[in-house]
Amino acid sequence: MKTYTVHFLPADVSVDVEEGTTLAEAAQRVDVFINNLCGGEGVCGKCRVQVSKGRAEAEEHARGFFSPDELMKGYVLACQTPVHDDLEIVIPPESRMEDSKIMIGGATEETGKIELKPIVKKIYLELPPPTTEDNVPDIERISRELRKQFGWHAFDIPLDCLQNLSDKLRQNDWKITVTLARKGDGYRILKIEPLDTSHANYGVAVDVGTTTVVVQLVDMNSGRVLGSEGCHNQQASYGEDVISRVIFACGKGGLEPVQKAVIKNINQLIRKVCKEKDVPIDDINALVAAGNTTMSHFLLGLSPCSIRLDPYVPTADEFPQIRAEEIGIQINPRGILQTIPCVASYVGGDIVAGVMSCGIPEHEEVRGLIDIGTNGEIAIGNKDWLVCCSASAGPAFEGGGTRCGMRAIKGAIEKVVIAEGGLEYQTIGNARPRGICGSGLIDCIYELVKNGIIDPGGKFHRDRSDDRLRIEENIPEYVIAFPDETESGAAVVITESDIDNLLKSKGAVFAAIKSLTDYIGLGFDMIETFYVAGGFGNYLDISKSIAIGLLPDLPREKIQFIGNSSLTGARMSLLSESAMETCVNISRSMTNIELSTYQPFTDEYIAALFLPHTNRKLFPSVAY
């Protein structure tokens, strides 16, 4: 079969591929990112690229995504364009991933309030040598000393720890360091090293997010965080959201490339943070990962196919402790990987880790946690009970489903203010506008309704005299940035259809919160603290989020942004056996309410499709 060369700009990277390979597949082979919401199905129109050299044409059904002028300039969809020639491909700004905001930190009032007892520890032993009176086997001599410190009667010992053990003990004057991992109700010996290496015991906490992957390097002896690194999840090449990736993994693409993408992310981040902090990778003995149920399945190579099919059953909700090398994670070859357990198909280990990290199960008072993304996941409870649910918010808050929506990357409009007939915006990186991200869209809706440009149903007042309000193909739109202000030369707008999608997203989130509180018989005033987690939540304006009906109308001091609670929970579980046990107990005891079969949710959702809500009594502080 013929092969051709595809050269990608501005990355300046080339790849040789077989004839018929799509441009998207070619880009994936050399880690060149091209925006992709639909997993290569050709229905989102986001993987726009320009053919600057060579012969390639847009597929017939994909031509509708482009204007006649763009078709003349060689624009095609990367996922629908096969290679039949040597090509030079320009990836335009709107299809690239640059300088994005990634939430790599986060803390709650409970962080640090843990007993430092890491799930992997290194114990230095000076053993008494054998005598005629004390001639027990070498491994029993080690186990005996460990029992004195831990009280356990038995330790799981793998074969490779027994091999060469006799020589190791006698050549080093019976001075050794034993690395132990907590496993279930006991301990497992991971390795036995000569002399004292107990000072070098490091671990990595990982938040395996749908959009981003973040790692923290931790000294497990002191509990100190040495460094953090984050990047965008390379699985985005197979779909922006988990459902698109599941469709890819369970269809033509298969599971392997999706798993390899996130493993590659993790390995790159570990290498980077270890190099910066001068920590040998071989000294990393444990990794704890937290992610939603689908991401946990992808990480471990478990089939996710049944998660999206009625009755929505995952392969597993608790995961075995494994050696990290079993799935290709590059730490010490004997180092372990522990994945935080999940609750249900759409309430995962990230929420379990978050609930644990903000101390909800430790308090008498009722507290709540919400993580807003493609899914809106909510948990409420106290030390006696926990309930949770998940509502499909759609991709609008991540920039999908809107004409000019984009992720929170360089050039995304993140703040908008309309006052005295003028509009001001702020972009990420202070760059020329490329589009608008989720926080900017929420600002837009608030400013439009406050200024009487749209009504509470999200419809524009078409008779309004405003040079920013225009009608295109009978669909009203409002110009946020004019063409001469933007990087691409095209206006950044919010359309009436965009607003409709955003109302559906915010309505789903609020309806889930309201349904959950009603289910357990609580009013919002009975919730002592409401935590908002995640990168998107961290950049929300609380007052505007309440004013559009996304968050409940609580006193502002009761709503706390806590950053990346999934990462915080993973780190706490790495450093504390009791924190890990708490996560297991949360996953087993938290009651999940399946909203798709809970009739009151449908009623609440319909009521929430207004600004802020059809029942204004729920939002007494909102006045516009």
Summarize the structure.
The chain has 624 residues and is α/β, with parallel strands linked by helices. It is built from 16 helices and 27 strands. The chain has a six-stranded mixed sheet, with helices on both faces.
Can you tell me about this structure?
26% of the residues lie in helices and 24% in strands. With 624 residues, it is an alpha/beta fold. The strands form six sheets. A six-stranded mixed β-sheet has the order 12-11-10-13-15-14, with helices on both faces. The radius of gyration is 27 Å and the shape is globular. The chain folds into five domains: 3-95, Beta-grasp domain (Ubiquitin-like (UB roll)); 120-194, Roll (Ubiquitin-like (UB roll)); 202-339, 2-Layer Sandwich (Nucleotidyltransferase, domain 5); 360-395 and 503-618, Nucleotidyltransferase, domain 5; 398-495, no CATH class. A hairpin with a 3-residue loop joins strand 10 and strand 11 (212-219).
- CATH topology title of the largest domain: Nucleotidyltransferase, domain 5
- Placed side by side, the strands forming the largest sheet appear as 12-11-10-13-15-14
CATH architecture of the largest domain: 2-Layer Sandwich
Number of domains as seen in the coordinates: 5
Structural class: alpha/beta
Mean pLDDT, as a whole number? 90
**Multimeric state:** single chain
Poorly predicted parts: 107-112
Shape: globular
Radius of gyration: 27 Å
Largest sheet: 6 strands, mixed
DSSP E strands, number: 27
Distance between the termini: 65 Å
- Helix percent band: 25-40%
Residue fraction in strands: 15-25%
- The CATH homologous superfamily name of the largest domain equals ATPase, nucleotide binding domain
CATH class of the largest domain: Alpha Beta
Helix run count: 16
